Amino acid sequence: MAEVFMHELLQNRLTIQQQEKLESEFRRYKEEDGYVPGDFGRDAPYTRTFNRRYLELMHLHIRRDNKAWPNRTLQFYRRSGFVLVYCYGFIDRNKYLLIDIIKHFDPKKPNEKENTDEDNNLMAELEAIAESFRDKN
Known about the structure:
Shape: globular
Radius of gyration: 14 Å
Structural class: alpha+beta
Distance between the termini: 15 Å
Mean pLDDT: 91
Strand order of the largest sheet: 1-5-4-3-2
Number of helices: 4
Strand content: 15-25%
Largest sheet: 5 strands, mixed
Order of helices and strands: EHHEHEEEH
């Protein structure tokens, strides 16, 4: 059974109801093979740097407009402007830390990297959070 934890960065962005919904949907997404909530999109690792690969820092595209992608759209093709950054435990792969929701870098806007997943300072902060979690789990 998946254990899902939420970092305070994410808790501060969401209402209690949003936190509960996200945690519940994420847990079900990880536990039930083939289940993908309508507002979850592509789920992929960050691979740009060695540290992100080593920490297995992941990002899951999510819809923030209370709409769902059409059912016929494969998860791989579901991309949005926002991603849920998360990681799982180093020893216990059934423990997950939901770290934050951030903007996904848009290559059509190459000068707008600040506060996106191309912002090295932001990503270093998220990497440190992931590393701390993985050291204990």
